[in-house]
Write a structure and sequence with these properties.
By secondary structure, this protein is of the alpha/beta class. 34% of the residues lie in helices and 22% in strands. The chain folds into two domains: 7-170, Rossmann fold; 189-294, 2-Layer Sandwich (GMP Synthetase, Chain A, domain 3), CATH 3.30.300. The chain has nine helices and nine strands. The strands form two sheets. Strands 2-3-1-4-5-6 form a six-stranded mixed beta sheet, with helices on both faces.
Amino acid sequence: MMEQQKKSGFVTLIGRPNVGKSTLMNQLIGQKIAITSKKPQTTRNRIQTVLTTELGQIVFLDTPGIHKAKNKLGENMVRAAKNTIREVDVVLWLVEPVTYIGQGERQIAEDLKAAAAPVILVINKVDAVKPEDVAKAINTYKDLYDFQEIVPVSALKGSFTDDLVKTIFKYLPYGPMYYDEDTVTDQPERQIVAELIREKALHALDQEIPHGIAVVIDQMKWVKGGRLVNIEATIICERDSHKGIIIGKGGAMLKKIGTNARYEIERLLDTKANLQLWVKVKKDWRDSEYLLKNYGLTEPE
């Protein structure tokens, strides 16, 4: 008997910062790949993750939120998000269940005109409102753009995410699998580890500093037959005053970031981890093409 033909394709998640793109991605994949935080612009690179089911394979591109850029890092992030729209088979536009459409959302609707692919509107955070509010939100958005489908979900609780996956497959072409079925991401482990450390720093630090930090893995070495990994990493910040805050009184803040990050790293790599963190000041690194390239934060032209 012939094997049933499978579908495969590329899907991007777009939306304003903080609508829950990374949370949805992690929920769909069933594993923590994209870092999440309440602060905007948490995702800086296009993160590629893979979902393989009996229907086929979806390769997700999680893009940085589309926002008004204030520096070179911001410009690179917005360019990455907009480029992705043109390259995929399906676009998922994630919004919150609201009845007012702000300027940021209207701008995204405008940017979506460049998309040749079908657009599915995903209304997230439905766990936080009443069912009639979800209906009102659908009504508010339905005429803004010619959506192929509108799907309400809760990324946080995982509600209706199966419906979303089925809906995506409806619009994907038949084709080959791009990755092995056990692959969940194309991100190198070092990069995910750096992102986990950055996430813990974002969670622990004050509002102003986090945008101005990057994390570089200086060394990652497996020892004891792979049962332990030694990691040395540097948190880069923009000011001496920031360095003091990141280290904290008697090193307490850095220790907290390290302890929280180590816990996640051990879960990710399924091994014990030794983590050593340093803090360095590099003024204006977010406006230096050289440093952005160095930290892996630029989009290829």
